[in-house]
């Protein structure tokens, strides 16, 4: 809510400025000229205007501005949130418009250069598409290139691990159906997940429709409703798909309209298996690979037995060696017949995959497999035909090579999709949190319940009243209007302790109600809910590529052609060496000749070097890492954030609300008169309850604990109330004159302050507390100490960070005395304290630290700290609540616990070390495997790698990389945190 208010404030400020872009001096500018350039050597500056879509608040604008200003040659950059514009002054000698546009897009927003003559604003939509059939990074690059080539597409990103594409496009120029066609032209299957319109969607099944006219009548009735934005009819499935604005209407309204249309014979309900989704496709893919592998075994096992086992059993060997025509034997015919279905029916997928890849000028894993198996199969066919036509030819077939190669690759793909399915478990678990049903209440005008009805939770609409019984899940985001209970929010926030809920408190859909009955009013439904926002955030994090992945993408572009060249060179070298007697004939196995030996080496090189493992190294680790983070209440926004966080060696903490609770509380009370503490606080609270000052509210809140009714205490009447601004308050309570305030107020009323009270005030100030004096009938009766207490575990967290070699710095707008006192309390050195700092000065300090060589993380509340959050290498928003989707931070710590700063850094380090391990394995495997497959060990040891074993090794490399990433699922936060005593705040 606070973030939204900030965004509105930005909008209001921007609206008040007529004309151009709103100058926002909150973000520090870069030097006027690039470092090392003489001013006189630089040509005139140029100006560029960009349309930037996707920004929702000042923090978003700040992140765009930060990115632009980091480029060399930027004179000034001003970003206007309201109009979605960025105006940049730059020096063309150092940077151009295209680089600036790409930089904005790297931050995560869509940017389009606006020409001076082009005043028409271009709209942008984002759609997500599932792509089936991709096998390696070459496939994903082909699909990405095909999408980027479509006119109207502004940005396309294809993720191999999730098998999805995210496309930003101009709907005026291109439709999503054309995007689907572009993908299908590259040879992959494309299924639309979402078309990007900012609306909710629902599918309804309608029974009782007999004619097309009836369907049209229903359509017209629904179209007339306010808030309905689109209707698609599927008469053969009795299905209606609706797009609508959840603020205006909802699914129950649609069902009512359908069922009251015509003669009331229609019945409507939510369409079963509405989403299908990623999980259904994954399961189908697993079944498909399993079936293919099973059938390939049926044919391959006999081929393997006839070529490698039965040849050593005398009776069977004689039967298989029986000649049919000339030198053609029964065994060769059997192997030919059995391997043909494996090659051309079961292995047909490799032909279609390679054809589609080659048609678009690219190469992928399918090309290598097709080339390797075809070489083995067609040489074997040549050998069989030659034997059938020659009375003297003694050849050897390789039918077992092609069929076993296909079988092992299918086994590898089956294990790979099985493992890859587990990398997206986090999203599946999050989506399963929403309860299937909800109890809808109907209230009368007085607020009494007059009806209860159990409905599908997908039918909940905004402002519905929902009943939540003990032990059930909260069905929707909303706030409590009746009842009190404790709600376990660990499934959303990762916070294990139940949170007390009473009237007015907010609740999050998917959390578990523990002990009381609650009536809640739904405020966010469908795609607006916190759960949906978290799912979307995790999905987009898994789509985003880590910068380190560019390394794999670059390699894979040239990898397959290079492997084909290596394979051909290997075959040629061994063939020529054999032909010209470059090695002894004793090296050639008795069942082969020199050509066949060379061919086996060539095929082995081709199939062992597939780049699948390389392509899966980063995305699978990022998927598992972000999923694990989400389950622990740490939302990491993609690979970029992960990669930056693992390098962090300096953390800048905001004080108020980050290191401290952010809310003043009474921490100590000293009485100077003999009286009951309850009576004392009744007099003080009765006086202070009329004041709006935060300290007064803290006193009244503390006083409630001494009353009989903490919920609605009744204070004595206060007469002649006077508020003295900056000093305190005065009133008559129970015929006693009560004065509550600071030292100067007491002196103004000629009230003598005893030495004991003076000592208590000095002690409070030394502890960074605010001392308040209470006078009863002109005699000081007590001293209150009020403080913004440290967050539980703050000192321990700073200590653990120090042991992790991470420097901690505190920055605050508070005075130096309070800042130094808090710093001493948490263990931050005095040289690492910055006090009395304005928001833009916090950002300047972050930049100074970066210039000193530190990789800086900023931990703040994400609102007033937004300039520093976007200036830092990694911004961590603490205590983001349910407004997570519009935070400027790279990492959102949902529990508001400082310990999660350590969890975030530790998880990113573990994830990145896993990525490194994956790359070492994938590259090391190829570096070792290719020379062995090429026969480097053969001259000295006689060891060679048959093609089918090379194929099995290739498949194993992909599976091992995915399994290595999956081990992250067992991530445990540092043991030091488990021993951390996260205490409650002690109030004396």
UniProtKB/TrEMBL annotation:
Which reactions are catalysed by this chain? Cu(+)(in) + ATP + H2O = Cu(+)(out) + ADP + phosphate + H(+)
Q: How does it sit in the membrane?
A: Multi-pass membrane protein
The residues that cross the membrane are 295-313, 333-351, 363-382, 558-577, 597-617, 919-939, 945-968
Q: Tell me the ranges covered by the HMA domain, including all copies.
A: 46-112, 125-191, 200-266
| EC number, UniProt record | 7.2.2.8
Write out the GO cellular component annotations: membrane
What are the entry keywords? ATP-binding, Copper, Copper transport, Ion transport, Membrane, Metal-binding, Nucleotide-binding, Repeat, Translocase, Transmembrane, Transmembrane helix, Transport
Signal peptide positions (record): none
Q: GO MF annotations for this entry? A: ATP binding; ATP hydrolysis activity; copper ion binding; P-type monovalent copper transporter activity
Highest rank taxon of the organism:
Eukaryota
Task: Give coiled-coil spans as residue ranges.
Answer: none
Q: Which SUPFAM superfamilies match?
A: Calcium ATPase, transduction domain A, Calcium ATPase, transmembrane domain M, HAD-like, HMA, heavy metal-associated domain
InterPro entries from the xrefs?
ATPase_P-typ_cyto_dom_N, ATPase_P-typ_P_site, ATPase_P-typ_TM_dom_sf, ATPase_P-typ_transduc_dom_A_sf, ATPase_P-type_domA, HAD-like_sf, HAD_sf, Heavy-metal-associated_CS
* NCBIfam families reported for this sequence: ATPase-IB_hvy, ATPase_P-type, copper ion binding protein
Question: Which family, according to the similarity comment?
Answer: Belongs to the cation transport ATPase (P-type) (TC 3.A.3) family. Type IB subfamily.
The name this protein goes by in its record: P-type Cu(+) transporter
Which organism is the protein's source? Answer: Trema orientale
């Amino acid at each position: 809510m606070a973030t939204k208010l900030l965004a509105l404030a930005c909008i209001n400020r921007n609206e008040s400025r007529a004309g151009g872009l709103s100058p926002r001096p909150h973000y520090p500018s870069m030097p006027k000229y690039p470092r090392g350039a003489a001013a006189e050597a630089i040509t005139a500056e140029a100006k560029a205007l960009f349309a930037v879509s996707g920004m929702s608040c000042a923090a978003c604008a700040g992140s765009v501005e930060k990115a632009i200003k980091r480029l060399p040659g930027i004179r000034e950059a001003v970003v206007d949130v309201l109009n979605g514009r960025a105006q940049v002054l730059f020096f063309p000698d150092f940077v151009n418009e295209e680089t600036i546009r790409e930089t904005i897009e790297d931050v995560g927003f869509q940017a389009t250069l606006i020409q001076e003559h082009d005043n028409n604003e271009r709209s942008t939509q984002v759609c997500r598409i599932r792509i089936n059939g991709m096998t390696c990074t070459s496939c994903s690059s082909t699909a990405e290139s095909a999408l980027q080539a479509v006119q109207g597409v502004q940005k396309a990103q294809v993720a191999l691990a999730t098998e999805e594409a995210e496309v930003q496009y101009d709907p005026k120029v291109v439709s999503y159906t054309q995007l689907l066609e572009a993908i299908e032209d590259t040879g992959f299957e494309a299924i639309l997940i979402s078309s990007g319109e900012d609306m909710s969607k629902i599918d309804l099944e309608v029974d009782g429709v007999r004619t097309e006219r009836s369907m049209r009548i229903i359509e017209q009735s629904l179209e007339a409703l306010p808030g309905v934005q689109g209707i698609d009819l599927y008469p053969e499935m009795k299905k209606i798909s609706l797009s609508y604005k959840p603020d205006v209407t909802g699914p129950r309204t649609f069902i009512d309209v359908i069922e009251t249309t015509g003669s009331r014979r229609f019945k409507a309900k939510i369409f079963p298996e509405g989403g299908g989704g990623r999980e259904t496709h994954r399961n189908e893919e697993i079944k498909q690979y399993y079936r293919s592998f099973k059938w390939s075994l049926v044919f391959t096992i006999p081929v393997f037995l006839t070529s490698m086992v039965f040849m050593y059993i005398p009776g069977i060997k004689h039967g298989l060696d029986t000649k049919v025509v000339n030198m053609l034997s029964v065994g060769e015919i059997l192997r030919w017949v059995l391997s043909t279905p494996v090659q051309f029916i079961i292995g047909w997928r490799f032909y279609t995959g390679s054809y589609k890849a080659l048609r678009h000028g690219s190469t992928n894993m399918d090309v290598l497999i097709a080339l390797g198996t075809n070489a083995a199969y067609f040489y074997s066919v040549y050998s069989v035909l030659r034997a059938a036509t020659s009375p003297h030819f003694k050849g050897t077939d390789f039918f077992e090579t092609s069929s076993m190669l296909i079988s092992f690759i299918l086994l590898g793909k089956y294990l790979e999709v099985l493992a890859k399915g587990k990398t997206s478990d986090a999203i599946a678990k999050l989506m399963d949190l929403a309860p299937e049903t909800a109890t809808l209440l109907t209230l009368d005008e007085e607020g009494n319940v007059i009806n209860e009805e159990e409905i599908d939770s997908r039918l909940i609409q905004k402002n519905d009243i929902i009943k939540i019984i003990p032990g059930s899940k909260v069905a929707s985001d909303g706030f409590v209007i009746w009842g009190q209970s404790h709600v376990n929010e660990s499934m959303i926030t990762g916070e294990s302790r139940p949170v007390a809920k009473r009237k007015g408190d907010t609740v999050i859909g998917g959390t578990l109600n523990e002990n009381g009955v609650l009536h809640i009013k739904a405020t966010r439904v469908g795609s607006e809910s916190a759960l949906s926002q978290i799912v979307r955030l995790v999905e987009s994090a898994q789509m985003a590529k880590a910068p380190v992945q560019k390394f794999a993408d670059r390699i894979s572009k040239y990898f397959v052609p290079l492997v084909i060249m290596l394979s051909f060179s290997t075959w040629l070298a061994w063939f020529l060496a054999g032909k010209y007697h470059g090695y002894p004939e004793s090296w050639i196995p008795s069942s082969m000749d020199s050509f066949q030996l060379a061919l086996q080496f060539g095929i082995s090189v081709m199939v062992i070097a597939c780049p699948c493992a390389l392509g899966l190294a980063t995305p699978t680790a990022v998927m598992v890492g972000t999923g694990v983070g989400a389950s622990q209440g740490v939302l990491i926004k993609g690979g970029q954030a992960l990669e930056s966080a693992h390098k962090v060696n300096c953390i800048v903490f905001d004080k108020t609300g980050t290191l401290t609770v952010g809310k003043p509380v009474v921490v100590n009370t000293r009485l100077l008169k003999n009286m009951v503490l309850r009576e004392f606080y009744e007099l003080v609270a009765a006086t202070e309850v009329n004041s709006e000052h935060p300290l007064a509210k803290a006193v009244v809140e503390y006083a409630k604990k001494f009353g009989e009714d903490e919920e609605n205490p009744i204070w004595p009447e206060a007469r002649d109330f006077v508020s003295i601004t900056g000093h305190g308050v005065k009133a008559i309570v129970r015929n006693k004159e009560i004065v509550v305030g600071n030292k100067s107020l007491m002196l103004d009323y000629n009230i003598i302050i005893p030495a004991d009270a003076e000592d208590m005030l000095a002690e409070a100030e030394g502890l960074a507390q605010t001392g308040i004096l209470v006078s009863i009938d002109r005699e000081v009766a007590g001293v209150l100490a009020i403080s913004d207490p440290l967050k539980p575990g703050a000192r321990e967290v700073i200590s653990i960070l120090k042991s992790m070699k991470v420097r901690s710095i505190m920055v605050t707008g508070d005075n130096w005395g309070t800042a130094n006192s808090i710093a001493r309390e948490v263990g931050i050195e005095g040289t690492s304290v910055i006090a009395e700092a304005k928001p833009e000065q916090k950002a300047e300090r972050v930049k100074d630290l970066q210039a000193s060589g530190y990789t800086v993380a900023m931990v703040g509340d994400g609102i007033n700290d937004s300039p520093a959050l976007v200036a830092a290498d990694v911004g961590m928003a603490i205590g983001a609540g349910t407004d997570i989707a519009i935070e400027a931070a790279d990492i959102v710590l949902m529990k508001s616990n400082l310990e999660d700063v350590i969890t975030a850094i530790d998880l990113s380090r573990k994830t990145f070390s896993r990525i490194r391990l994956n790359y070492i394995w994938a590259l090391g495997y190829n570096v070792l495997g290719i020379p062995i497959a090429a026969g480097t060990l053969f001259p000295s040891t006689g060891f060679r790698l048959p093609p089918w074993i090379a194929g099995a090794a290739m498949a194993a490399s992909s599976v091992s990389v995915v399994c290595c990433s999956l081990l992250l699922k067992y991530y445990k936060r540092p043991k030091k945190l488990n021993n951390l005593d996260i205490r409650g705040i002690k109030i004396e």
